[in-house]
Amino acid sequence: MNLAIDRRTALGWAAAFSLSGLAGRAMAQASEGPEVLIQRVAAELIEAVKSDPALRNGDQARVIALVDNRLLPHVNFMRMTASAVGRFWRQATPEQKQKLQAEFKTLLVRTYSGALSQVKDQTLVVKPLRANPGDTEVIVRSELRSPGKDPVQLDYRVEKTDAGWKVYDLNVLGVWLVETYRGQFAQEINAKGLDGLIAALAQRNRGNVTEKPPVGSKG
């Protein structure tokens, strides 16, 4: 099993799943369970990716537009960014927080847009949710299955809000995205401060080479 390729495929699936289906029907989504939402949208994924050549080719302008219009309303991006920055978030000014969110979003889009082209004939199988009825934070566990390949673990951390369930972290092959970036960001902040992290992210985002998905903490 080629873990590097399959991880990129899973990341592409995760991004494309979020970009293609988590939009509209806000009232219905607010009452849906998190695993029901993910399973329903998964059925719409492959056709959406197949019908969008720009998305399949990793067109960043297209991906950014889809993120802004369809993904962000269903992601607690402030929590995601704050968790990645860690304890330093409390020290950040409102302007720094705004810049960190903007640069982190751009970094994630750049990192995973190239993986979208890997989404082809996969199937997402959502496992039964293990949670109590009153839980407001749960992990939706799933497997990405491809013909002739071992399944790939793909899990979402989601929280219940007044606007419905929102994603705040993603696990691919045992690697939690936020935890991975937290370690990277802490090194940069300890060396150069919050402004140094913002500058480093901006520099990476201005680069011409698509970022590679990080390798980091497992859980």
Helix segment tally: 8
- What separation lies between the terminal Cα atoms? 21 Å
Report the β-strand fraction as a percent range: 15-25%
Q: Work out the count of structural domains.
A: 1
Query: Main beta sheet, described?
Result: 5 strands, antiparallel
- Category by helix and strand content: alpha+beta
Low-confidence segments, given as residue ranges, are 1-5, 18-27
Instruction: Supply Rg.
Output: 17 Å
Q: Helix coverage percent of residues?
A: 40-55%
Tell me which oligomeric state these chains represent. Answer: single chain
Mean pLDDT: 79
* Net shape: globular
- The CATH homologous superfamily is named Tgt2/MlaC
Keywords: Signal
Protein name: Toluene tolerance protein
Pfam family, one: MlaC
InterPro entries: MlaC/ttg2D, TAT_signal
Features:
219 residues, single chain, Nuclear Transport Factor 2, Chain: A, 5-stranded antiparallel beta sheet, 8 helices, alpha+beta
